[in-house]
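About this split. The held-out portion is used to measure sequence recovery: a designer receives only the structure tokens and must propose an amino acid at every position. Recovery is the fraction of positions where the proposal matches the reference. Here is one held-out target exactly as it appears in the evaluation file.
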């Protein structure tokens, strides 16, 4: 018989209850819980090795979030009908959990830890990503794995001016702010989200609301841990500490490390200087020293470099490349740098460079984005590539890793805020290729993407720029906020955060915090400094390209969207698609028709303007309602003894009677008209019983003086 679970329940607001249970499922894992809200159930498990692998020098944490399609009563659409590798959405949720948990493990803990979070039951209205980190933390809380603190995560969205914690899916669709925030009892740890140009103070308010909600969840986890009878955390093997060797390293290299930090050198020059100093340190130890000692000396060297560089920045306000704390590196921007793409831009900031292209496609190019609960198509795609040569390294070229997916998602969410709505028929794909990297290539992607979109003629109303910020703190309450951080400054900082937006407000945020006791006052100061840096970058972007181009490039596909009555959709498509296929074949266009409400949304794409105009006129003719008294350009389709049948609108024919061809009496049709002739006609009547159209050519001719109407002996009804 299965054991009875131990659980706690709490209210996340508005009577929405969340239950966390342990002790029933996955009992051989070192920690396992289920988190439930409504019909959404998440299973989280955690397992850790008892000893680190031999020679392990870093913390090997693996976090995987995955959604079972069965959780929503669906069968995967793949050939094998089973879940495959994590999709981008699952990777992004995995990153959110990883970034929140990783700083909370002891720095000297090197045992393998695997956190698996699985959606086993889906609810159409409950967003599982807001509960995933709660589940992971609760699994760690009821285990003996030595994590330092309990953590949790919530989503805060602003809907119609009101901040809501963990909104339902329907509410989130109407939100103008959407942020996921993770925190411990005292400290914020991670922030990621997007907004429609929100103010900095609005973001701070969202963080404060989130932290209050998180404290309730942390209290519930602590209660669950106590109910489960978790006594404490396991002991683990700690790395060897050689205080004598530490002192030698400091005596030999301490002053020289600080000197290099003050040298205001470039990335490669600085890296070479540190490598040379490290090599000299190892040589100073003597050839007889064992490899383990040399390895430990290298570690102490890196630890000393981390400490001394931070102290130089804090005490002397000197950055590694000589800049002021709030100074942005030199900027260079070009647009239309590639002849064939539909839009392109090259953005360079210091030693970071992005070559970004924009491609315009049809609705047939839309991307299917699937999760267990939803299947949606998106017309806005951004792909971020980070080849190894961008940092001067040699690595195998594989598919995009989690870092590439995460950086691309941040850029996509930021630029999406300024994209035109559903009325814009193009599918837009942005590709950012990072050619050089030394600090925040994701922000370079945002800037280059904005420039490339405007270069492509996308009706992008405002530029979106981004800047990466850093923070260094010390126990004596000294701190330094750094604008436009270098790669080395990212590594040695206590907080790095990326802020994107327009001149009017914030569009995207990604923040990782590794310091205890970060005050909201410091957060406000950092956000204000980020705003000033963003405005500086935006000014340079507007100088490079003040506004979007009025038209797409000559080689880009032309587009026009028509809205027709729903009843005409069948007429445009034709029996078995005959009409629409003929239009596409004759005009060289691509036509997409979608029923939206009481209308048909017709998108016409063509590589040439002539084909576009011809197809649009054809469709307008099909859906046009003939009006008596209107004049049309008609084509003769058939000749009879009593007149000619002409097509005056696509798919609409009428009789041009012999008596209506000319004021002069015609004895026969011979030699008057032939098939294929173009002739202007006037619609003079519609038979309301039969729906037949009566056309006249002579009505457009001057009437001879004294001429009386004649019917050429036409029988009645002809």
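Reference sequence for scoring:
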């Amino acid at each position: 018989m299965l054991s009875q679970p131990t659980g706690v329940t709490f209210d996340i607001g508005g009577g929405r209850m969340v239950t966390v249970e342990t002790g029933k499922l996955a009992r051989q894992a070192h920690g396992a819980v289920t988190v439930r809200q409504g019909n959404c159930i998440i299973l989280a498990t955690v397992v850790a090795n008892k000893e680190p692998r031999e020679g392990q020098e870093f913390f090997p944490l693996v976090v995987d979030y995955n959604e079972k399609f069965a959780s929503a009563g669906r069968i995967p659409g793949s050939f094998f009908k089973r879940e495959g590798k994590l999709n981008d959405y699952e990777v992004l949720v995995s990153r959110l959990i990883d970034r929140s948990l990783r700083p909370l493990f002891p720095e000297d803990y090197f045992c393998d830890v695997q956190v698996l979070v699985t959606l086993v039951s889906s609810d159409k209205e409950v967003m599982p990503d807001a509960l995933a980190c709660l589940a992971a933390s609760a699994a760690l809380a009821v285990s003996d794995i030595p994590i330092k603190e309990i953590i949790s995560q919530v989503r805060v969205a602003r809907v119609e001016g009101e901040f809501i914690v963990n909104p339902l899916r329907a509410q989130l669709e109407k939100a103008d702010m959407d942020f996921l925030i993770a925190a411990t009892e005292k400290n914020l740890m991670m922030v990621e989200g997007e907004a429609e140009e929100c103010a900095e103070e609005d973001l701070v308010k969202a963080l404060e609301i989130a932290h209050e909600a998180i404290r309730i969840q942390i209290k519930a986890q602590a209660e669950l841990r106590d109910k489960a009878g978790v006594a404490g955390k396991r002991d683990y093997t700690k790395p060897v500490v050689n205080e004598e060797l530490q002192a030698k390293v400091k005596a030999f290299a301490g002053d020289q490390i600080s000197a290099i930090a003050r040298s205001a050198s470039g990335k490669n020059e600085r890296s070479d200087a540190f490598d040379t100093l490290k090599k000299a340190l190892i040589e100073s130890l003597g050839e007889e020293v064992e490899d383990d000692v040399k390895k430990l000396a290298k570690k102490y060297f890196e630890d000393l470099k981390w400490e001394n560089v931070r102290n130089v920045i804090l005490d002397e306000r000197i950055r590694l490349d000589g800049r002021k704390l709030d100074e942005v590196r030199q900027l260079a921007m070009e647009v239309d740098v590639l002849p064939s793409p539909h839009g392109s831009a090259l953005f360079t900031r210091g030693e970071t460079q992005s070559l970004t292209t924009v491609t315009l496609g049809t609705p047939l190019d839309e991307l299917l984005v699937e999760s267990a609960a939803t299947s949606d198509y998106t017309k806005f795609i951004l792909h971020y590539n980070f080849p190894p040569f961008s940092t001067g390294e040699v690595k195998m070229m594989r598919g995009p890793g989690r870092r590439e997916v995460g950086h691309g998602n941040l850029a996509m969410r930021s630029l999406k805020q300024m994209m035109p709505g559903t009325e814009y028929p193009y599918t837009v794909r942005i590709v950012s290729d990072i050619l050089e990297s030394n600090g925040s290539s994701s922000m370079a992607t945002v800037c280059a993407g904005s420039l490339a979109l405007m270069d492509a003629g996308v009706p992008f109303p405002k530029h979106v720029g981004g800047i990466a910020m850093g923070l260094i703190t010390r126990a004596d309450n000294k701190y330094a906020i750094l604008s436009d951080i270098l790669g080395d400054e990212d590594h040695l900082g206590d907080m790095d955060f990326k802020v994107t937006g327009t001149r009017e407000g914030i569009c995207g945020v990604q923040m990782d915090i590794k310091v205890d006791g970060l005050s909201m006052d410091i957060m406000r100061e950092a956000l204000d400094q980020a705003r000033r840096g963003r405005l500086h970058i935006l000014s340079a972007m507007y100088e490079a390209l003040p506004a979007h181009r009025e038209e797409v490039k000559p080689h880009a596909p032309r587009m026009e969207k028509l809205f027709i009555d729903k009843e005409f959709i069948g007429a445009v498509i034709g029996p078995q698609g005959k009409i629409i296929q003929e239009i596409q074949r004759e005009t060289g266009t691509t036509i997409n028709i979608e029923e939206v409400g009481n209308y048909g949304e017709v998108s016409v794409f063509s590589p040439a303007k002539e084909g576009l105009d011809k197809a649009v006129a054809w469709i307008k003719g099909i859906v046009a309602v003939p009006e008596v008294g209107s004049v049309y350009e008609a084509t003769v389709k058939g000749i009879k003894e009593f007149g000619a049948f002409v097509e005056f609108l696509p798919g609409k024919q009428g009789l041009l009677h012999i008596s209506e061809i000319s004021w002069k009496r015609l004895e026969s049709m011979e030699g008057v008209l032939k098939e294929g002739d173009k002739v202007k006609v006037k619609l003079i009547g519609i038979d309301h019983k039969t729906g037949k159209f009566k056309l006249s050519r002579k009505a457009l001719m001057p009437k001879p003086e004294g001429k009386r109407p004649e019917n050429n002996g036409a029988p009645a009804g002809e």
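Annotator remark: Residues 710-718 have pLDDT under 50 and may be disordered.
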